[in-house]
Amino acid sequence: MEKTVDNSLPHDHSTARGFCMTSAVWMAIATLFGLTTAIQFIAPDLLGNIPWLSLGRIRAVHTNLVIFGFVTPGLLSAALYIVPRLLQTTLYSEKLGILTVFIWNIFLVSMVVTLAMGLTQGREYAEAIWSIDVLVALTFSLIFINLIMTIKQRKEPILYVSVWYICAAVILTTLVYGIGNVIWVPGAGALTGIPDAIILWFYGHNVLGLLLTPLAVGVAYYVIPSACRTPLYSHTLSLVGFWVLLVIYSHIGTHHLLQVPAPTWLKVIAIVDSIGMIIPVAVVLFNLWYTVKGKLGMIHADIGAKFVFTGTVIYLLTCIQGPLQSLPQVQRVTHYSFWVVAHAHMGILGFSGMIALGGIYYVLPKITGRALYSKLLADLQYWLVLIGLSGFMVSLTIAGLIQGNGWLNGETVYRILPQLHVYNIVRASMGLMIVVGSLIGLYNIVRTLFFQPKEVQ
Questions:
Q1: Could you read off the pLDDT of 411-432 as tens digits, one per residue?
Q2: How many Cβ atoms are within 10 Å of 413's Cβ, its own excluded?
Q3: Are 352 and 208 spatial neighbours (Cβ–Cβ below 8 Å)?
Q4: 3-state class of 350 per DSSP?
Q5: By the 8 A CB rule, do 219 and 238 touch?
Q6: What contacts 11, CB < 8 A, 6 or more positions away?
Q7: What is the CB neighbour count within 10 angstroms for residue 126?
Q8: CA-wise closest residue to 202 among 225, 178, 222
């Protein structure tokens, strides 16, 4: 629950505002790239032969911008308000924070330009070239320094669980990003053969598991008790969930490699731990939902909390589907199909993305001293994103099952593609709703940050 803070402290929140604006701008750009990708599945020749708009290039731009342009900065915006607030202090250095925001946007622009030019390492979620990888690692290192020094100067002796999750996300991602992108091999940024595939998917799955998940859960653990004005149901459960997540999640990436000659023992560990992920997810949701028990009206009344609570519901759906598709018999049908695309969107946009938006809307009035420009627009964005995402997941899940069963039965490509056409149209239509929602959110956030009058304190 939110603690009473010494209001005499000179709160600036420039870093939180910078990451908030970063997230809003890049969400609009990332979703536009995603919509362009979806349209190309319907009309492959629509954009001609423009190299930088080819599917192989803009798909990589889209995925990287969603993860590093929209979701991560959105969660960091909330986190960099939450951590000092819980510790009853100020952020160690707003100047360092602003430098971090500046470098973050430099590597995002560099990433878009280089990937559009066809400069890539050709590795999932690790397409950015080596020099950009160095910038990313540097940025996370600076955020880590700012957070650890903020903890050092804290006035509150108890580290609330949100602080645990947020700091762990930054520390672990600094390490995981360097390992997964093989940053010690300049130029190539990759190994060769099966070892490279294993390291890649150790990183690829931990982008969600050790970056977005801890940040999102940390934000949820703050927003939901604060919005309900009630203590967290169990502090002990929150720490149990924290440690189980860290122990289990780091081992499951190899379930993406069940069809390749990776070591069998590694595949077994990945499958067992994928099923075991039900434990930390159940602990988190049990803890949060019991905190909300009897107070859903308060969640519904707060747009930020409504986004966050919805993200926790989608977290449950994601972590039912995830362990299921790690089973070899299920993967025979689902792997390499649109089913996996639906699952990725459920986890990144549905779970962590909804919580990122909720975190932004919850802390925005607090870091600006201004009321939200329009709760109506925020609510409209909520429904556009939720309906768009739901339709997206259903249509792609069905399309993935059609693909998988067709391939399993030996169907030729020209017989399968016409069956997918209607689902690709639904996919693009739902994507358009998400794009409109992102543009509405950008407008609402810009008006709140720069054009809304200050509230009387």
A1: 988 899 999 999 999 999 999 9
A2: 9
A3: yes
A4: helix
A5: no
A6: 84, 90
A7: 22
A8: 178
* Tokens at 188, concatenated: 């190539």
Cα 163 to the center of its chain, rounded Å: 18
Asked which of 47-51, 103-107, 206-210, 394-398 is least confident by mean pLDDT, the reply is: 47-51
Amino acid at the residue 154: R
**180-224 pLDDT, tens per residue?**
999 999 988 889 999 999 999 999 999 989 999 999 999 999 999
Q: What is the CA radius of gyration of the chain?
A: 21
Distance CA 223, CA 41 (A): 39
φ, ψ at 2 (rounded to 5°): -65, 135
Q: What's the CA gap between 86 and 94, in Å, rounded?
A: 17
Indicate the CATH number of 14-451 among 1.10.240.10, 1.10.10.10, 3.40.50.2300, 1.20.210.10: 1.20.210.10
**Mean pLDDT over the full length of the chain:** 93
- Output the six-digit token pair for 104: 């973050």
Residue 435 has pLDDT above 70, yes or no: yes
Can you tell me the mean pLDDT for 71-81?
Answer: 98
**Is 283 in contact with 235 (CB distance < 8 Å)?**
no
Q: Are 31 and 434 in contact (CB under 8 A)?
A: yes
Burial label, 446 (beta-carbon count in 10 A; 0-12, 13-18, 19+) = middle
Helix axes 14-42, 413-446, angle to 10 degrees: 150
What is the CB neighbour count within 10 angstroms for residue 180?
25
**Residue 455 DSSP label:** P
Residue 67 clears pLDDT 90, i.e. is over it: yes
pLDDT at 268 over 70: yes
DSSP code at position 212: I
Q: What residue has token string 């075991």? A: 276
Residues 6+ apart with CB under 8 A from 150: 83, 84, 87, 89, 90, 91, 92
| Residue 191, phi then psi, degrees to nearest 5 | -100, -155
CB 115 within 8 A of CB 60: yes
Residues 336 and 405: their CA atoms lie apart, in Å, by 12
pTM of structure:
0.95
C-beta of residue 255 within 8 angstroms of C-beta of residue 208:
no
Position 410: which residue type?
Answer: G
Q: Which two tokens stand for residue 22?
A: 């970063």
Q: Is the dihedral of CA 148, 150, 152, 158 positive or negative?
A: negative
What is the number of other CB atoms lying within 10 angstroms of the CB of residue 316? Answer: 16
Tokens representing 348 are: 């990144």
Q: If you search the block for the tokens 């957070």, which residue do you land on?
A: 147
What residue spans define the domains of the chain?
14-451
